[in-house]
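Supplementary Methods, section 5.1.

A reviewer requested that the exact input to the structure prediction be made available. We therefore reproduce it here, unchanged from the version used in the analyses.
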Amino acid sequence: MEILTYKFSWINLIDILLVVAIAWQLFVRLKGSLAFNIMIGLLTLYAFWWVVKYFEMPLLETILGGFARFGVVAVLIVFQQEIRRFLLIIGRNSFLGENKKWWHIFPWMWKLDENDELDFETIVDACQVLAETNTGAIIIFPKTSEMRFLAASGETIDAQITKRLILTIFNKNSPLHDGAMIIAKGKIKAANCVLPVSDNPDMINKFGLRHLAAIGITEQTDAICLVISEESGLISFVKEGKIKEAIDRELLIDLLHKELKPKG
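The structure derived from this sequence is encoded token-by-token as follows.
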């Protein structure tokens, strides 16, 4: 099959479908974010450069050509968070992803099963007390790493999980209450950790800094977050940048079991 001197084959069709699939995934991941508007601006500028080049307008062609030539560098700088998130999704879902079951045949990966020791009831009980007293808190549960780069921004604890310790850390008079707590490998690893904040404009207009931090870290990693609002006392569950508000005790425990219990 040939259209306008372009020869179509099964390989060409697969090529086109793959490009469309990648473009659609980028659209879905970027839609609603500040980066989406920047991407539209860059594409518009690039299209305008081709129009200027076609009509042979040398001055504008030279100016816009400079932008076009450094377009790859500009994309890497502007979209570094989105590119990191996209690569994380690919790595997590690929055959070699660290969360795949077949990895567990290696002894050095058995440590991932330590999430099985998490006492979800104790954690949720502490969250309920914090919610009843309108005490703000954010707790992170990494899935495939201990997030040591985040732990380094706070205070290392590495302690057993107890209700009293969680309440003490998030007490309003505690110097550690403002930041996030990291729970991994059956222990409280760190507290008062600094998190990246989401730049999603839809979220910025709706949530405060604590919730935006939870959304931001789950956008960039595979972690799960619990957030207690200081204003409303509601408990929220955050995954992949999406937030479920006003979660009750039973549903919260079920969600934690579903997300953090080792598969199989």
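Residues 10-30 form the longest helix (21 residues). These observations are discussed further in the main text.
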